[in-house]
Specification:
121 residues, mainly beta, seven-stranded mixed beta sheet, four-stranded antiparallel beta sheet, 47% strand, globular
Length: 121
Amino acid sequence: DVQLVESGGGSVQTGGSLRLSCEASGVTVNGKCMGWFRQAPGREREAVASISTDDGIIDYADSVKGRFTISRDNTKNMLYLQMNSLKPEDTAVYYCVRDHFGSNYDLNFGYWGQGTQVTVS
């Protein structure tokens, strides 16, 4: 059974920090493009951060550059998103995804988690 399970979301004040985690089971994150997307109510899903197969290329949305950091731990089969200096506009459901890099996405391709809510007020 393939699962990507996000955790670490919650409510935080403006300027605060959260660390999202994504635990993969049934599939590996090692050697795969991985990423984080988010979707706010009434808005399109958007890419937040991506990491290439060998971690050599990392891409961030302009809106989160300098504040968010994507990383992975292949030994634990985990993907992370460290979010600092959070703003109300970061409020969204955050999704972990495998086999995606960059802004384009296909919900029918790769593996997606169920999402974790982040609320910044």
